[in-house]
Design brief:
heterodimer; A: about 110 residues; mainly beta; about 55% strand; B: about 150 residues; five-stranded mixed β-sheet; three-stranded antiparallel β-sheet; 1 helix; 8 strands; about 30% helix
């Protein structure tokens, strides 16, 4: 089992009212519970069903993910920056496990 | 003679029953999701009025690998506290389950747009339903041809 690992890319600096792109990737198998392994056993369901993005504790975006989302869920969203701050990204697994990632941006 | 006849008829009957139920069952499996999608869409619309909105739904026309189909959208909206896009639903009518993702935006995002990757089991229609803060909705649709399906099995 590969380890679940979060990655995110945010520009280090931006100007006020610039629309930046937040790129996120979580290394996660997203087993839908329909796939079978080489021996024909069903791989148990294991999916991320929620992604939440905060900027300076303000909610920007939250997404309900279903098993139809590919493995290693890749999410890109734009954001209009008005001030320097921190992005808090949160992935929630159905079983309750959480993965987080923090990214800061300086706005001048 | 009587015994033989009975034996054959029983096997035939079982074979026939087996194949008949399979033939009856398969199209239902394939179509279930198409009906489910219209059900889900009706549930979301729920008597709301439609509105003309600029929706850019970007999907490949042909996806060689159904495991990783890039889907991105942008909805023209000022994203102010009074007028913004509240929800965006992505639905697919040929997958085992119709729902793909539900995006919940807030005005602080500034722009209503996102990109992700999804699985498509076969050639099918992908729907995007946007719900606006004023209680209206807009829909966009695109067909993706899938060469290799992406739902395992």
């Amino acid at each position: 089992m590969s380890k679940v690992k979060a990655r995110a890319k945010v520009p280090k600096e931006a100007s006020i009212d610039e629309v930046i792109e937040v790129k996120t990737l979580l290394r996660h198998p997203m087993h839908s519970g329909r796939m079978k392994d080489s021996e024909g056993n069903v791989i148990p369901r294991k999916i991320i069903n929620k992604f939440i993005a905060y900027f300076n504790d303000n909610l920007i975006l939250s997404i309900d993910l279903e098993p139809s989302i590919s493995s290693n869920p890749y999410i890109v969203f734009p954001f209009k920056v008005k001030e320097s701050g921190t992005f808090n990204l949160l992935w929630q697994e159905e079983t309750g496990e959480e993965y987080t990632m923090e990214k800061t941006i300086i706005v001048s | 003679m009587k015994k033989k006849l009975k034996y054959i008829s029983r096997r035939k009957a079982l074979n026939f029953l087996g194949s008949a139920s399979l033939i009856l069952y398969l199209p239902q499996l394939a179509q279930a999701s198409t009906e489910m999608v219209s059900g889900v869409i009706e549930e979301i619309i729920d008597g709301k009025d439609s509105v003309n909105a600029d929706i850019y739904l970007d999907l490949p026309e042909i996806a060689e690998n159904g495991n990783q189909v890039k889907v991105s959208f942008e909805i023209d909206s000022p994203m102010t506290d009074e007028n913004f896009v509240r929800f965006v639903h992505v639905l697919a009518d040929g997958n085992p389950a119709p729902k793909v993702a539900k995006f919940m935006f807030t005005p602080s995002a500034g722009v209503c747009s996102a990109t992700t990757r999804m699985r498509l089991a076969k050639t099918q229609n992908v729907y995007l339903l946007a719900e606006f803060s004023n209680g209206r909705y807009a829909m966009a649709q695109s067909t993706v041809k899938v060469t290799i399906g992406g739902c395992g099995g």
